[in-house]
Amino acid sequence: MVFEKEELEFLKRLTESFGPPGFEKEPIKIIKEHVSRFSDEITTDKLGTLIYRKKGLNEQPRVLVAGHVDEVGFIVTNVTKEGFISFTGLGGWFDQVLLAQRVQIKTKKGKIIGVIGVKPPHLLKPEERDKVIKIDKMFIDIGATSKEEVEEMGVRIGDPIIPYSEFTVTMNGKVAMGKAFDDRLGAFIAAQVVKRINNHPNTLYGAATVQEEVGLRGARTAAYKINPDAAIIPEVDISGDAPGIKPEEAPAKMGKGPSIITYDASMIPNQELKEFIIQVAEEERIPYQLSQVKKGGTDAGIIHITGVGCPCIVVGVPTRYIHSHVGVFSLEDLENTVKLIVSAVKRLDRETVENFTKI
User: Fold this and answer.
1) Is 169 within a domain?
2) How far is residue 273's CA from residue 6's CA, in Å, rounded to a whole number?
3) Structural domain tally of the chain?
4) Catalytic positions, written as ranges
5) How far apart are CA 345 and CA 56, in angstroms?
6) pLDDT per residue as tens digits for the range 227-278
7) Is the pTM of this model over 0.90?
8) What is the mean pLDDT of residues 326-334?
9) Residues 30 and 108 in one domain
10) Which residues contact 269 (CB under 8 A, 6 or more apart)?
């Protein structure tokens, strides 16, 4: 087993917790409880991001490792007179993955399980069957028979919704399946890095940021408060080893090590920092992959342009089926990502960090 039982239990609690954008308190509390045992200071910004600090041998440079805790989810938009719930996405969804999936709605009276439904195929016209059904044609069924019954169960417009999906480790113990890996894996990695590291030549900040999936919002406020000198953003990367994906579309593969993102739609990384991470991986004999994401971005997209700027790099865990009810990733890739970032932070002294932007 790559991780200890306690670490896997923390990861399970974290990924199964309820936390779409704007509703992240449950995973934030889980992380706060976990990191309070090895952090020197825990604070928040006024948007809800959790920030925890671990003193090193020097006050500077300030090094940030940040992963966002919000997951792609939904929000209630209406209740029909027949008792069906209309909804829309919080974050990016491919509508085709939604049908017949179970969801969890958080109401003022507690959490309710429902299923996403649509008109059955038996009633579709031939031309309709060949089209992707959009989210505005779908509804959530919680077993009610009227609008009044739904309201009695506590459901209101504006209530948040997430996929209902359990964290599961496969029988061979090498692969995990579940929801919210984007980016609870990054939040887990940040916590593990702060837990494992000691005698580092800097001050290390871990952050569990909020509202990344709707515009990198928590990254903006957290970076403003921390004012980091360098930042490493652990994220998921699209695993391109599933059928139908070309290598040039998604070069990273599950089980081949963490991916170092050479560019994405929100950031071109600091090149000296990128080469530094590659060098650390090679010297520590940690497998790695060079990758790119042509569409989409991460918290690094905001952190690298906060204040006067901050050298940033994104290190990813190749993950299949992100932004769906069930993702798949390699536990060994997750462990190697933690090892790579710990090894890198241990080398980030003042001179090294200053050289990232030296002309």
Assistant:
1) no
2) 33
3) 2
4) 212
5) 11
6) 999 999 999 999 999 999 998 899 999 999 999 999 999 999 999 999 999 9
7) yes
8) 97
9) no
10) 261, 262, 263, 300, 304, 311, 312, 313, 314
Q: Is 116 helix (H, G, I), strand (E, B) or coil?
A: strand
φ, ψ of residue 103 in degrees (nearest 5): -135, 165
What burial class does residue 132 get, using C-beta atoms within 10 Å of its C-beta: 0-12 exposed, 13-18 middle, 19+ buried? exposed
Q: Which two tokens stand for residue 161?
A: 């919704």
Number of DSSP helices (H) and strands (E) in the chain, helices first:
10, 17
| Domain match, 258 and 304 both | yes
What whole-number distance in Å separates Cα of residue 288 and Cα of residue 313?
14
Query: Could you tell me if 87 and 58 lie in one domain?
Result: no
Task: Give the three-class secondary structure for 136.
Answer: helix
Rg (the chain; Cα; Å):
21
Question: Where among 163, 188, 212 does a domain terminate?
Answer: 163
Residue 314 to residue 205: CA distance in whole angstroms = 16
CA dihedral 241→244→250→256, nearest 10 degrees, is 10
Q: Report how far Cα 273 is from the mean position of its chain's Cα atoms.
A: 22
Sequence letter at residue 272: E
pLDDT in tens, 335-359: 999 999 999 999 999 999 999 999 9
Last residue in a domain, options 133, 163, 193: 163
> What range does the domain containing 126 cover?
74-163
Q: Are residues 268 and 343 in the same domain?
A: yes
3 state DSSP class of 204: strand
* CATH number of the domain within which 194 lies: 3.40.630.10
Torsion over CA: 350, 227, 203, 193 (sign): negative
Residue 170 lies in a domain: no
Q: What is the DSSP letter of 132?
A: P
CATH number at residue 125: 2.40.30.40
Longest CA–CA separation in the chain, Å:
69
* 168-to-17, 88, 164, 356 alpha-carbon distances in Å: 14, 27, 13, 40
Coil, strand or helix: which one is 68? strand
197 lies in the same domain as 55? yes
